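Table S2 (text version). Query chain:
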Amino acid sequence: MAELIQKGGIILVLILGLAFMATVIIIERLLYFRRIRIDEEKILFRLKATLEKGHYDEAISICEGNPSPITNLMKVGLEYKDHSEERIKDAIVSAANMEIPRLERYLSSLGTIANIATLLGLLGTVTGNIRSFGVLGTMGAVGDPSLLAKGIAEALLTTAAGLIVSIPTIVFYNYLVNRVNHTIIRLENRVTELVLILVKTKGKDPA
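Corresponding structure-token output:
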């Protein structure tokens, strides 16, 4: 690894840094979407059971103790439970719009990393070729072959490294954007469901 870094120069170091950042973001986002998907079904079942008994305070406690997009929406709905159905729906829709930035967190950074990694690879190609041609221009055919090889190695290594980082990053970026879009659609469907639950259970006395 040290030898590769030496051959690739500072540009290869920067590309490796971008690879680390992309890996951290991808893992964090995958774990986040996995958690909210698993929690959603369990928590929604608990909330329905609690609301059917008219235990609104308990339902709010469940929402506060299990923060996720769906519980945030339900908490807002519970806060407006004494209002009209239209007012409840408007409040939940507004809350759903506030969840979108959380779902899209770090995705713009991930897309930027993919682009920068490619550009750095190209920059390494250019600087490596400049170094190689500089050696030929200065020393001619009798120049030191090791200096020429170093420039060519930098050009090839940084190009390959840039593509190796960029390609999977773009794949995961598109995948995560797709997950966000599906989650937003699911939240929109949940809005109607939550409103119906709240309207149906409104005014129930605790059992």
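Notes on Table S2: Residues 43 and 66 are 8 Å apart (CA to CA). Helices lie at 2-52, 56-65, 69-79, 85-103, 107-139, 145-201.
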